[in-house]
Amino acid sequence: MRRIIISFFVILLIDFFMIILFIALHMTDEPLPIVANLQFGVLKYICGFPLVLINTEYPFFLSESTFPKQIIPMVIMNIVLQVLLLEIYFRIKK
């Protein structure tokens, strides 16, 4: 149980840091730097896994200019799925 809680908060911190970094790198009038494009891919395909497999538009809020209301439940649901997948992996690995 402890490992599940720790995994949840570590993934939550990583997602939060990546979203803040994404906002900081995209606040420019110039074309996006290569780092911002790489960070977008990491945020979408790694931090967005497994929901990105179900809906290729997830995380859809990355390309919107307004803050959607469903962002918080979607991110939390994705983190819960990631933690469950990690727990299954660790139990199979044993």
From TrEMBL:
Q: Which UniProt keywords apply?
A: Membrane, Transmembrane, Transmembrane helix
Regions crossing the membrane: 6-25, 32-51, 71-90
Q: Is Transmembrane there in the keyword field? A: yes
UniProt superkingdom: Bacteria
Q: What is this protein called?
A: Uncharacterized protein
Traced from the root, the source organism's taxonomic lineage reads: Bacteria, Pseudomonadati, Bacteroidota, Bacteroidia, Bacteroidales
